[in-house]
Amino acid sequence: MITPVNAPVNAPVTVELALSPDEAANTASVERAACRAAGISHAQLQSLRLVRRSIDARGRYPIVRMLVALNETTNETTNETTHETTPAIPTQPPTSPTSQASQPRKHVIIVGSGPAGYFAALELVQHGARVTVLERGRDVRARRRDLRALMQQSIVDPDSNYCFGEGGAGTYSDGKLYTRSSKRGNIRGILETLVAHGATPDILVDAHPHIGSNKLWQVVQNIRESIERLGGEVRFGARVVDVVLNQLGGRPTSIHGVVLADGSEVLGDAVILATGHSARDIYELCAARNIAIEAKSFALGVRVEHPQPLIDEMQYHHTPRNPHLPAASYSLTCQVADRGVYSFCMCPGGLIVPAATAPGEIVVNGMSMSRRDSPFANSGMVVEVTPEHYSPDDPLSALRFQQEVEQRTFAHSGHGTQEAPAQRLVDFIDGRSSTTIPKTSYIPGHVATNLHDILPAAISERLRRGLLVFGKQMRGYVTNEAVLVGVESRTSSPVRIPRDRTTYQHVHVTNLYPCGEGAGYAGGIVSAAMDGVNVAKVIVTALAIG
Ligand SMILES: Cc1cc2nc3c(=O)[nH]c(=O)nc-3n(C[C@H](O)[C@H](O)[C@H](O)COP(=O)(O)OP(=O)(O)OC[C@H]3O[C@@H](n4cnc5c(N)ncnc54)[C@H](O)[C@@H]3O)c2cc1C
Predict the structure, then answer these.
(1) Strand order across the beta sheet in which 251-260 lies
(2) Taking CA atoms, which of 137, 150, 203, 216 is between 20 and 30 Å from 46?
(3) Is 518's pLDDT higher than 60?
(4) Residue 112 alpha carbon, nearest atom of ligand 1
């Protein structure tokens, strides 16, 4: 289909192409197909730009769908085609701050250097605010050593792990960058900022953009350097343990600073609380200081892992998969007894990782490298946790429920390590312990068990029935080669820190800005980053910055 753009000679036209993976990987083939679709000769083609790319595996053979924009030359003899597989790359670093005349600069304290915290910081320094980012964990490089100790020796550092440390939970994640929260902000702007800091420009065109854990840390480090270059300060090993509040009748009314673990105070004009969904001490601090919080639903289950070639075969109908196709993924969802059962954060070609944030608990999650080339495909497989499991009147009850399951999982595995309970999918459905577990990607190891003994019955029975439904949706999914590893419990925050819809300030505490996933206003890297930008913009106006 050709979409002519309303303009005279040489105006770009966009055309949709459906190509085989081999054709899509070959520049000359793409150009030929685009010229054919646009009705021009190859000699008339001046430039070609890829706008969008997705894999369509619904038919017998997978096809690559592309939207490309072409420019036609008016002079065939001087034709030299430029072919961009990606759009123009935004390479400019963030611009210098706009001056605040001679007034003292407003000081914004940001707690947490995850996507919410760092994107808020970037936005604020660009407007000329004085910004201090306080991060309990270590910088991305030092954090890698702590992750190695976690993987190989089961040492859980409560300040530096898969959830805590520079870049937050997103840094050593899968780095999937798609979000359903398109109404919450400028997704394209977030992706462009990531590209400007070193992410592959492919993320601007792919329908399912992905960076990969091996590349994300560098992007995070570059973002920090931009924040610092524009005058911001980032402090590591800076765990916030208390808040400095104004009170009236024992109730907090406004915040003007925070207290660090070393006893020092950091005072400012506003505090952004972007501490992520695993900062239980922050929720406890809020409860202790009478800062209103609410219990919130989340989801609980396991990771399910298949050999990647099996998923490729199910999705692409061929094995081995074409080398120009990415490792296949899936997304499954159904309702069982009035509750959602669904796949979550699917990691094709990835690894299951230990994501606990304190000793004495086991939590699993998934990540992958940019090439997605591990022989395993894992995904969270979770059931909605509804208020029947906690008390909506007790703000910390959903958190306690989550914590108890994680501690029970640790106790059940019995070795005092991060070895996780595992069970073949087929045995889980039949309700019996597995006697053997095939090799998985989970490095700390596993203990064969019956996961029904660990998960609450209302969750595990729905999970069992959901897996049976998924076995019908994807033929071959229920196989003896698939393994469940428990528990996947950090799907989203079990607590919300309520804020005003317009001012983004806490409903009772002026100048306190709950932000990102930990506050209950985001789920995933891009939506957390967008929330950070949104909160920063509101602060710029509220404090008349810039
Ligand atoms: C293994 C793994 C894989 C994931 N894969 C993906 C994926 O592929 N795609 C995706 O979109 N999402 C993924 N996620 C989820 C994603 O990482 C989060 O949704 C996102 O990082 C939330 O951003 P945030 O800034 O709100 O909080 P976080 O990223 O959690 O950042 C919070 C930060 O606050 C710091 N902090 C906490 N308490 C304190 C304190 N008291 N004092 C100072 N600092 C504190 C923490 O150390 C942390 O750095 C994954 C998560 C994990 C763990």
Answers:
(1) 240-248, 251-260, 265-267
(2) 203
(3) yes
(4) 34
User: Residue with the nearest Cα to atom 33 of ligand 1?
Assistant: 112
Ligand 1 neighbours, Cβ below 6 Å, are 111-117, 134-137, 162-165, 168-170, 173-176, 239-240, 274-276, 279, 281-282, 345, 353, 355, 365-367, 516-518, 522-525, 528
Question: Mean pLDDT throughout 167-193?
Answer: 88
Distance 164 CA to ligand 1 centre (A): 7
CATH number of the domain at 197, please.
3.50.50.60
pLDDT in tens, 38-54: 999 999 999 999 999 99
Per-residue confidence at 318, pLDDT binned at 50, 70, 90? Answer: confident
CA within 13 Å, CB half, 262: 8
Q: Which domain holds residue 72?
A: 2-84
Q: Which residues are bridge partners to 45 per DSSP?
A: 72
Q: pLDDT at residue 459 above 70?
A: yes
> Alpha helix locations (H) across 377-417?
397-413
- Choose one of 488, 507, 526: the last residue of a domain: 488
- Under 8 Å CB-to-CB from 417, ≥6 apart: which residues? 154, 444, 445
- Domain count within the chain: 3
**Which two structure tokens, joined as six digits, stand for 183?**
């109404």
- pTM here? 0.94
Higher pLDDT, 12 or 103: 12
